[in-house]
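Issue 218. Parser rejects a valid record. Input:
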Amino acid sequence: MIEEEFIKLFQNNEVELQTIDQKQIDQESIQEAALRKIRMKELSIMLKDLSWDDRYEWLLYQKNKGNKLFYQQQYDRAIQVYQEMSQGLDLQNTQERNEIMKQDFQYPIIFNLALCYKKKKDYGKASQFYDMVIKMHPSPRYILRRGYFHFDIQEYDKVQSDLSLVTNINEYPELREDYFELKQKLSDVLRKDRELYQRMFQQNSQSDDEQQIKLSRLDQLYEWCKNQFSRIFGCRKMFEDDESEDDDESDPKKFMEK
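Output the parser choked on:
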């Protein structure tokens, strides 16, 4: 989870995050959480007296260390290194130096945390960090990475939204391949979905047609049976009427005088 110090660090950028319970940091034990808190405090003391140049060198070393851990698939340790880097960011300097800190470290920290949580399949936190870094620095590269993230978790409407945000792709030739690849992947998925729905609709239509044919045949059979029964019962009624008249005529009482 995000350290409280890390949350405070980005409050100046108007990025809202929920308060985190330290006892629930990635299901760590209370002892491990306490050790981490001590470590963060020691870092704060150590970094306090560093010059801007020394601080920059330390951040660069930590960044390379975190990236190496990421490529070794040690995501929890990489997250810890990136969080420790938040202590070393100096955003209270000149405008030029502040911009260097943001471009070289602050934005990459948040983006790399998103990648780590994605690899850990903690998609809620990954989405939180993707949204945070894009809100602070909406570069086409970050937007496309979030688009791929949304594609991987099958949120295709959000993929389309991310693609629509990249309106100047021709100005970034190094991103064109990724952009059109993602666009093609989305198109293929949507096409397959349409074909699936069409097949389902055709099957339903065929079922409806077959049902109509069956009903039509039943109607024909019903009409035939009705006609047959009408003929049968009609003849029987005539026979019964004739038989009744014969019985009446053969009854001697009918002709007896009273």
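Fixed in the parser; the record now loads. The chain has nine helices and no strands.
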